[in-house]
């Protein structure tokens, strides 16, 4: 698979980029070099290799949940700038 000048022009148009002819040629070469390198990776024997998403094992470091008393409604509203019917009162955002 290779990238053509037409492909670079198409992507530039989608991204609304104004590229010079020199930049188009430069990007075509760079993108083809990237694809060539990626094809090298396809030559590796990966049979028996388990797919991974991380190099190191990822473990959850959060503590266990424990039931405990919550802040009371009165305490939460104590410093509120405005409250109504036991709830925070905020300016309307919809008309």
TrEMBL record:
Q: Which family is this sequence assigned to? A: Belongs to the GatC family.
Source domain of life: Bacteria
Asked whether the UniProt record includes Protease among its keywords, one would answer no
User: What organism is listed for this UniProt entry?
Assistant: Paenibacillus aurantiacus
Instruction: Cite the residue spans of the region called Disordered.
Output: 65-95
Reaction equations catalysed: L-aspartyl-tRNA(Asn) + L-glutamine + ATP + H2O = L-asparaginyl-tRNA(Asn) + L-glutamate + ADP + phosphate + 2 H(+); L-glutamyl-tRNA(Gln) + L-glutamine + ATP + H2O = L-glutaminyl-tRNA(Gln) + L-glutamate + ADP + phosphate + H(+)
Do you know which PANTHER family this protein is assigned to?
Answer: GLUTAMYL-TRNA(GLN) AMIDOTRANSFERASE SUBUNIT C, MITOCHONDRIAL
SUPFAM superfamilies tied to this protein: Glu-tRNAGln amidotransferase C subunit (SSF141000)
Q: How does it assemble?
A: Heterotrimer of A, B and C subunits.
Sorted alphabetically, the keyword list is: ATP-binding, Ligase, Nucleotide-binding, Protein biosynthesis
Q: Does the keyword Nucleotide-binding apply?
A: yes
Functionally, this protein is described as follows:
Allows the formation of correctly charged Asn-tRNA(Asn) or Gln-tRNA(Gln) through the transamidation of misacylated Asp-tRNA(Asn) or Glu-tRNA(Gln) in organisms which lack either or both of asparaginyl-tRNA or glutaminyl-tRNA synthetases. The reaction takes place in the presence of glutamine and ATP through an activated phospho-Asp-tRNA(Asn) or phospho-Glu-tRNA(Gln).
What is the protein's given name? Aspartyl/glutamyl-tRNA(Asn/Gln) amidotransferase subunit C
Could you tell me the EC number(s) of this protein? 6.3.5.-
């Amino acid at each position: 698979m290779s990238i053509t000048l037409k492909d670079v022009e198409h992507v530039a148009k989608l991204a609304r980029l104004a590229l010079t002819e020199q930049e188009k040629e430069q990007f075509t070469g760079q993108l083809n070099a990237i694809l060539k390198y990626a094809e090298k990776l396809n030559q590796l024997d990966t049979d028996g290799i388990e797919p991974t998403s991380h190099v190191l094992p990822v473990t959850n470091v959060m503590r266990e949940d424990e039931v405990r008393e919550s802040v009371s409604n009165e305490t939460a509203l104590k410093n509120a700038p405005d409250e109504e019917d036991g709830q925070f009162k905020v300016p309307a955002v919809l008309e």
